Amino acid sequence: MSTYTDDPRIVEFDVRTDEMLVNMGPQHPSTHGVLRLVLRTDGEVVSEVTPHIGYLHRCAEKIGENLTPRQWIPYTDRMDYLAGMNMNLGWAMTVEKLLKLDLPEKAKHLRVLICELGRVASHLVGMGAYGLDLGTFSPFLYAFREREKILDLFEEVCGARLTYSYITVGGATADLPRGWLQKCETFLDQLEPIIIEYHTLLTSNAIFVRRAAGIGILSPEMAIGYGCTGPVLRGSGVDQDLRRDGEARYTEMYSGYAFEVIVEKNGHYPKDHHYPPVPASAVLGDCWHRFYVRMLEVVQSIDLVRQAIDRYSIATGSWGEPVKLTEKLPKGEAYLETEAPKGQMGFYIVSEGGSIPWRARARSSCFCNLSVTHELCRGCLIADVPAIVGSLDIVMGEIDR
Amino acid sequence: MRGTEFLERLKERFGERITGSNLEALDPWIEVSPEGLLDVSRYLRDEPALRFSMLNCITAVDYFEPDAKKAAKVTWKPHLELVYHLWSVPHRVSLVMKVMLPRWKNDSPGELPELPSVSRLWPTADWHEREVYDLSGIRFLGHPNLRRILCPEDWVGHPLRKDYEMPLEYHGIRNR
Questions:
Q1: Is B151 within 8 Å of A57 when comparing Cβ atoms?
Q2: Which residue, B98, B63, B66, B80, is CA-closest to B138?
Q3: Is the dihedral angle over the CA atoms A92, A93, A99, A102 positive or is it negative?
């Protein structure tokens, strides 16, 4: 029997091994929550991976059929619990689309400001946890140190550190407190040089490159076919970002902001001159590229937050429109996708004319991103499985809902 | 391509298999008959002017008459509605495709309605269809691995059906 791969790291080619089923998870430290992976292995080589999900299923969609849209906002927090603000935004905008509600300028800039900060926080966790997957502990601590500061800012805004429910239908629940913008700017000034430090710790680190580059290659066709979105899709070189390409209701929030979609173009990334170059062993669509896209998006989001602060402080109008908790919904249906940190998060609402939706549906990005695992892991080593799953940056709350 | 023009072309090509449309809705949608689903899907994915290469979401909506009292207010006949949200990566447009199904096959309660699977066309449909099967109870013909995905394997019933009742007990765990 021959081995499945020509990997030079496997020395003993002639050793005959039995196939073995290995359970990884559901509580394995490297599986990002309650994910169970069943690996069929031949020695160290993985021939098949079957993800088993559903351990965190909380019936959010069923609950959505029994609550008004504003009451369902806290449930969206618990889907992607690392980027609750962005989840709130997705659902709130879907309901606003159904209500045909338009927001004042100030509320839009407030949302951009908050959601881009949320994106930074989410990517920092993704980055730190990925370092942990590859066996380096310090970046994990450093990333959480920076994330704590964002959570402090969020706590000041809405009183919560993880489940915010801050952005609701019709704007936000409250205005930013006095002096908050200065604190935020101070924080951004601190964060920017630190990002370069993270790059030296991980992106250009020889061990990291060996563990991540050229592993788990996702071709653009496969990424599109499997519905992968967000940094996973852009890491494969597909130029799509809903902040630029999405529905008008969403993109007009970002109109006038200067930003470029982070995707490789002819061997170059936008704004990558400060940062380590692409290593020679990296292939477009591998774990390293997905990680790099995420890191560059942090820098971009910092830039967007700065722009949003400027616009917010001079914008006119209110930070929110009053919408009743039991606002009557018009008959109809609406689907809207927003660019959440982990990918495109879609919400779908069907209303039959009451204040409670007939059907509330969450299309989660991680669900599609994870479904490609069995393709990526075919023929890799057991030690590469956490590297591949980690590079997808999944959150189980969003997959199981 | 404009909405009406697109619809005319589809009708010309597929005739009876395009069973309805609503271009005035918030998200304009077309309705396809279950028999024509695979052909229309393949056309939508492969036609160079369309290229709906990304399947964003499959949703099943259960329209069920709640009880005799409310039945007078309700405008629909009991049915299941499958909603496919498609996205074209090169052209950056979205499309909503709907399929109507009876709630039960042959009107005998307990027999799940059937629909051809599109997982050969869009691999992402694999998991989405498993989820729809699990939660809404629709059997997909030709699906490579139609098992429950979110609920346990031995769970009884399909929770997102409107007439679903929570079991009082599951493996000795009391529910209320």
A1: yes
A2: B80
A3: positive
B57: nearest CA in chain A?
A: A363
Residues of A in contact with B79 (CB under 8 A): none
The torsion defined by the Cα of B159, B165, B166 and B168, in degrees rounded to 10, comes to -150
**B59 part of contact set with chain A, CB < 8 Å:** yes
B123/A268 Cα distance (integer angstroms): 30
CB A391 within 8 A of CB A384: no
Residues 6+ apart with CB under 8 A from A3: A10, A13, A42, A43, A45
Contact check, Cβ <8 Å, A346/B59: no
Which chain A residue shows the shortest CA-CA distance from B147? Answer: A52
Please report which residue ranges of A56-104 form alpha helices under DSSP H.
60-64, 69-77, 84-99
- Write the CA distances from B4 to A248, B9, B23, B95, integer angstroms: 21, 9, 8, 13
Tokens standing for residue A384: 């590469």
Among chain B residues, CA nearest to A350: B61
ipTM over 0.95 threshold? no
Query: Residue B70: phi, psi to the nearest 5?
Result: -85, -10
Helix axes A138-158, A105-133, angle to 10 degrees: 160
In total, chain B counts a number of residues equal to 176
Residues A135 and B156: their CA atoms lie apart, in Å, by 42
Q: How far is B123 from chain A (nearest CA, A)?
A: 5
| Beta-carbon separation of B56 and A98 below 8 A | no
Whether residue B127 and residue A367 make contact (CB cut-off 8 A), yes or no, is yes
A240, A335, A368: residue with CB nearest B27: A335
Asked whether the beta carbons of residue A371 and residue B127 sit closer than 8 angstroms, the reply is: yes
Contact A37, A53 (CB under 8 A): no
- CB contact at 8 A, A122 and A342: yes
Digit-by-digit pLDDT tens for chain A (401 residues) are 444 566 666 665 565 677 888 888 787 666 777 888 898 888 888 888 988 888 888 888 889 888 999 899 999 988 888 888 999 999 999 999 998 888 888 888 999 999 999 999 999 998 888 888 888 888 889 989 999 999 999 999 988 888 888 998 888 888 888 889 999 999 999 998 888 888 888 888 888 888 888 888 889 998 998 989 989 999 888 888 888 888 888 888 888 888 888 888 777 777 766 777 788 888 888 898 899 888 889 988 998 999 999 988 888 878 888 888 888 888 888 999 999 998 899 999 998 888 889 889 999 888 989 889 988 888 888 888 888 988 888 888 888 88
- CB-CB: which of B56, B92, B151 is closest to A245? B92
* Preferred mutation among A38, A61, A100, A347 to probe B, highest tally of B CBs within 10 A: A61
| pTM of the predicted model as reported, rounded to 2 decimal places | 0.87
